[in-house]
Structure formats: structure tokens, C-alpha cells
Design a protein that fits this description.
DNA-binding, mainly alpha, 8 helices, Tetracycline Repressor, domain 2, homotetramer
DNA sequence: TATGAATGAGCTTTCATTCAT
DNA sequence: GATGAATGAAAGCTCATTCAT
């Protein structure tokens, strides 16, 4: 990758991050290309140099965050700790993303209502990939006797649902700190697996 | 209530149901007044005879379903069964609504991105009222020794999060039947409370 | 005229008066048929039993007031007083109408922007008829030596312009009472004629 | 001001002038954004690049003309001529604007029926500023003995009313030329002040 | 006569997208 | 690479008008 490409890639990521911020705050439809450009002190038109269209841009927002989450999780998966600890870590990571990235790590939004077909498949794929990590952790736990459930996928969906939901009510200035939340969730959700 | 009022009320509910259907399918922004009217073989203009504006109409969609869910749940709450059974029933009811009403019973969407302030408060109120029912069931279970957790609200939020999430993946033609899903969810989520 | 016709005529006048009130307050475009009907505790539809359309209704508003003003003025014209006194009376009457009927006696609005061609001619005719009364008073005053100007029509237009303009600034709670206004206007405008 | 700003400002003025023309012909409600755009061979949407909304655009129409009238008048006010001559000049200028700019210099329309509150205040302010110029001329005339009246504001309102009214009846192809009208009006209205 | 309901044309406004410069 | 300007399609909404009952 030459110098130019690197610069372009960086600019692209800048745009993605800004866009993610705005989309988080206002939602897909509430965030206009104008808003996103304004945040970057650019003009609308310039965005189209880097991204095909709004769909494409917002897709990359999701993709960036999701990829990053997957990478983070996969690193923990490799480490030599108990499945219970892996699960706890996974909860911690997920909560972190859910809170920090809000809308963009919003596994909650119906992508069908937002993305065109072209973008839908890759997003669903990546979501699946992310979910698989949880499945693997659970499977591993079952294999080594730490967990004992039969419906892995259902359990995983409950867990992810519970975690994603945090986004709906979490406030930085709320009663419980992020750490407390993570602990309670880890604790309770583990009961579900054991 | 005179004959006319009844007829009007019925028509209003018709409209609400149709609107709910469209909004479920296409999301708030994707569903146009035109779409909703077309479904009813009416013209856009006619909708405005019954509802102030789109916001008002969609608000009533949510209100109708949510009120209905609350009523259904409250009936079970009064009945003379164990807290565990009440919980199972609650899960069943919730899943039923989540699946049948889809978007309209979508406790998931950020209402901030959809409703104007005027409509936001009542919706949040009613959601809270709904959540309270779950809290009560849990509290009752704790009081009579069936459940033994300390963080009622956190547990309730995990549970509702898990249940709402079903909407994201449920397909009528999926592998698991609705009944199976309800059973597994009840089963697993109860572990969380015990 | 039979009983029915009388009743209908009365109702029509009721509607006209209400319409005039609303149109005065909100202007032609601001006043909706709904508004007018509401004031009368009727429904929109009913208005169409009495008047062809909005244009027709508002036309009759203007016509009613204008006719009434003409009649009032003509009575004074016949009376056996000096032209100066006639003029003073005319000013008084005009101010009264301008203030009380506001928009409806609004000789100011461009009828071209409000009425369709069909209604335009009769309105302009009646306005002309009204203006003629002022011309006659002035002519009479010239004939008997009280006034001494040559451009009767121009003078009349100045005078009516000045008087109509009162509508733009008059406030019931203003510094000057209606009577004071009439006196000052009579006084100053007479200088114009002498 | 850079080149771009100048170009934009020019375009804005172009739009304002076109809008003024249309609004003059059809009135505020009769003139659609489509009409205005068509006159400029633009599309509706483009207008919104330059102006917030219709209200904003029409406000600027009024503002432009009124500002221009104020400027023109103020120049005469400074010159070293008699108050009588100043008054004559003021009448001439006013008539010129009334005739040339029609609706846009329409001090006649009730701005309350047209503008939203936000725009109302500045318009009323500017109208007042314009009126003040007439008051000053009159006051000056009184001070130097050319005029002898006590009710300055009332006189000014009569005069402006009379002048504005010209708009209602003036036709370019009418019997009296613009110059004749100005002369007669100046002549007669001066009698009012002396 | 009067009403409730519906229509439909027309309006303002928004915004993703395009493109000459 | 970036901008200013423009487009055009679509949306929400209003309201005079109609008409069966």
C-alpha cells in the first residue's frame, strides 16, 4: 500500500468514526450526510469521493466496529484461561462495545430496515461470525465440564439479547458503574449456562 | 358512547392495526402514510381525519399493543399460581407479542429516534409500567422463596432483553416452534432467577 | 318570501357574520372552512348547503358589510346638513366600519388575490358605488362653495386610502380613542378639501 | 468578501427579485415556491439552498425593498432643501416604490397574516424606521415654520395611507401619468400639513 | 338540512445524490 | 480531492370540496 492509499485509508476511517458518532446519536434516518460532513468540517460532496453512498458509508461504520469487536474477542478466545473466565471477558468486551459505540455496535437495529440487500449479507455474516465466538466459548465450556446446557444457540441468543439491551438503558451517570454492571451480568448469565 | 363514536373508534383501530403491520415490515421511516393508506384502500388524506400526523398514528400503534400486553399480563399476575408459573406465563405472553406484533411491540427501537417529545413520555411511561409487572412477579417469587436474587431490576432487564431479542431472529418457518422457544427460554431464564 | 326562505336567509347571515369574524382575524387564506364552521358549531359540509364555495361565502361577507356601509352613508347624504358635516359623518362611519369589521371591510386587500373573476366584478362595482358617495359629498361641497378642489377623484382616493390605513395600526387599547381619531382625521382631511 | 460570497449574494438577490415579482403578482399564498423557481429556471429544491423556507425568502423580499427605500429617502433627508421640498421628494420616492415594487413594497398587507413571529418583528421594525423618516421631515418643517400641525404621527399615517393606496388603483396605462399623480398628491397632502 | 367521512390536488420541505469547476 | 450548487424524487401535511346517509 503506497503512501496515498494509506492516507486515503486513514481519511476513510476518520469519516467512518465521525459517521458512527452521528449515526449513534441520531439514528440512521436522523443522520444526514450533511450532519456527517459537518462533523468533519467537510462538505457533503466530499463524502462521495470516499464512499459510494450513505448505505455504503454506514455499512462501513458497522463493519469497522464489528470487525474490531471480533478481533478483540478472538484474542481472548485463544488465551489459556477457563471457559468461565473467557465468558466473563466476552461479556466485558461486549458491554464495552455496546456502551461505547452505541448505535454502531447496535446489533439491535433491524438491518433490513436500514441496509440495501447488497450490504445486508456481509453484515449478517459478520454478526454471525461474532455470535460464533460466543458459541465456541460455550461449547468449550461444555466440553470441559464448566457449563452444562444443551441448547447452545438459544442460550447464546438469550445472552446476546440481554447484553445488547443494556444499550437501551445505560447512562454514564447512572447508579451502577460499568464495572458493576459487567459483574452482575457475568454472574447472572453464568447461572444460565451452568 | 354513541353508535357513531363506536364506529369511529373501530375505524381508528383498523387504521392502527394496518399501520402497525406496515411499520412492522418497513420500520418507522420506511413506512409512508401513503403505504399505510394503501393497505386500507384509503387515501393519505383520510388518515389525517383520524390522526393528527404520522407521529400520532404510530404512537397509537405502540400504545395499543403495549396496553394490550399490559392487560394480558396483569390478568395472569392476579391468578393464584406459583411465581414460577407466573413467570413462565409472562415469558409466553411476551414472546407471543414479540413475534406477532413485531415492530409495534418493539421495545427495542430507540423511541428517541422516532417519536417527538410529546409522544415520548407516555411511551416510556407505559414501557415502565410493563416492566414493573415483571419486577412484581420476581419480587413475589423472592418473597415466597421461589427465587433468590438480589438485583431484581438488573435481572428483569436481562430477561426482557433476551426476550425482545427473539424478534431479531425468529422466523415462523424456523427450526424451533414457538412453543419450543417459549419452553427453552422459560427454562433457562428461570435458572437466572433461582 | 315564505317562512323557510326567511329562516334560510337568517342562517345565511349568521354564517356570513361568523365567517367575516374569522376572516377578519386570520385573513382569507388563514381562515379555513373548518374554522368558520367551528365558530358556528356546525360542520364544514353544512356551509356548502348555503354557499357554493369559500369564494362565494367570503364574497358575501364583503358584500354584506359593504352594502351596509353604503346604506348607512346614503342616509346621511340625504340629510339636510352642510357638506362639511356630511364629510365628517362619512369619516366617522367609515372609521367605524374599518375598525369594527376589520378584514371584511378591508378595502385594502387586493381582491385579485382573493376572489375569482366571477366575484371580482361585483365587488369592484360595489366598492365603486361606495366611493361614489364620497365623490358626491365632495362635489356637493364644491358646488356650494364649502370645498374648493379640482381633482375630486384623486382627493377621494387619498382620503379613503388614509382612512383604510387606520386598520393597520388601530388598537382598541391604544392611546387615542376612536372618537379622537375620527376628530383628528376629519379635521386634517378637511384641510385637504378646502 | 471573497468572490464566492459575492456570487452567492448576487444569486440571492436574483432570487429575491424574482420572488418579489411573483409575490407581487400573485400574493404570498398565490405564489408557490415552484412558481418562483420556474421564473428563475431553477428547481424548487435549489431555492432551499439559499433560503431556509418560503417565509425566509419572502421576508428577504420585503427587507430588500424596504431597505432600499429607506436608503433612498435618507439621502434626501440630508440634503439642504426646504422641508416642503423634502416632503415632495419623499412623496415622489414613495410613489415610485409603491408602483414599481408593488406587493413587495406593500406596506399594506397585514404582515401578521403572512409572516411567522420570527420574521414579523424585524419587518415591523423596518417599517417603523421608514415611517420615522416621514416624521422627521414633518418635525423639521414644523420647527422651521413651514408646517403647522400638532399631530405629527396621525398626519404621517394619513399620508402614508393615502400614498400606499395608490397601489390599489394605479395602472401604467391610466389617465394620469406618474408625474401628474405625484404632483397632485404632493400638492394636496401638503395642504394637510400647513 | 346537516354530518361524518373521504378525496385529491397542491403545497412546503427534506435530502441523497450528482457534477462542473 | 474537494466544493458549491443544483436536481429530483419523495415525503408529510392541508384543505376546499363532495357525497352518501
Amino acid at each position: 500500500m503506497g503512501f496515498k492509499e494509506i492516507k486515503t485509508a486513514k481519511k476513510k476511517e476518520d469519516i467512518i468514526r465521525s459517521a458512527a458518532k452521528i449515526v449513534s446519536k441520531k439514528g440512521y434516518h436522523g443522520a444526514t450526510m450533511e450532519d456527517i460532513a459537518a462533523e468533519l468540517l467537510m462538505t457533503k460532496g466530499a463524502l462521495y469521493y470516499y464512499f459510494e453512498n450513505k448505505d455504503d458509508l454506514v455499512y462501513h461504520c458497522h463493519d469497522l466496529i464489528l470487525s474490531s469487536a471480533i478481533k478483540t474477542l478472538e484474542d481472548y478466545l485463544k488465551s489459556n484461561i477457563s471457559s468461565t473466565d473467557k465468558f466473563k471477558k466476552a461479556v466485558e468486551v461486549h458491554v464495552e462495545f455496546v456502551i461505547a459505540e452505541k448505535e454502531t455496535f447496535n446489533m439491535i437495529i433491524k438491518p433490513q430496515h436500514t441496509f440495501t440487500e447488497k450490504r445486508l449479507a456481509p453484515i449478517l455474516d459478520k454478526r454471525q461470525k461474532y455470535a460464533n465466538i460466543f458459541d465456541e466459548i460455550i461449547q468449550q465450556g461444555i466440553d470441559n465440564g464448566e457449563f452444562k446446557i444443551t441448547e447452545i444457540k438459544m442460550a447464546r441468543m438469550m445472552i446476546l439479547g440481554a447484553l445488547n439491551w443494556i444499550q437501551q438503558w445505560y447512562l454514564p451517570e447512572g447508579k451502577k458503574s460499568k464495572k458493576e454492571i459487567v459483574d452482575i451480568y457475568s454472574d447472572y448469565l453464568l447461572k444460565l449456562l451452568k
